[in-house]
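If your schedule permits, I should be very grateful for your opinion on a structural question. I would ask you to consider whether the tokens describe a fold that such a sequence might reasonably adopt. Thank you for your consideration; the sequence and its tokens are set out here.
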Amino acid sequence: METMEKMSMIKRRWNLKEDELLQKLVEEHGAENWSLIGQLMSSRSGKSCRFRWCNQLNPLVGHQAFTLKEDNTIIKAHAEFSKQWAKIAGLLPS
């Protein structure tokens, strides 16, 4: 369970030292044990650590621009499904 102190933290940018510590903790404890990792990070919650890892630091996450075909798929799917982003993401290649 997150401490009240961590839950009330002000949002701020991650710094390099925090990123390096998060990478080390994920290597040691795996990318599923976010409660423990959050406890070991003195200034971040498990939820925040998971979000940072899954969306920014995980080397398996691609950060390249969408292709024209992918752009068109997203535009058409958004017209049909509105903000159902999980459904739209399922229409794109991995």
Summary: The mean pLDDT is 90. The two ends are 33 Å apart (CA to CA). The first helix runs from residue 4 to 7. DSSP finds six helices and no strands in the chain.
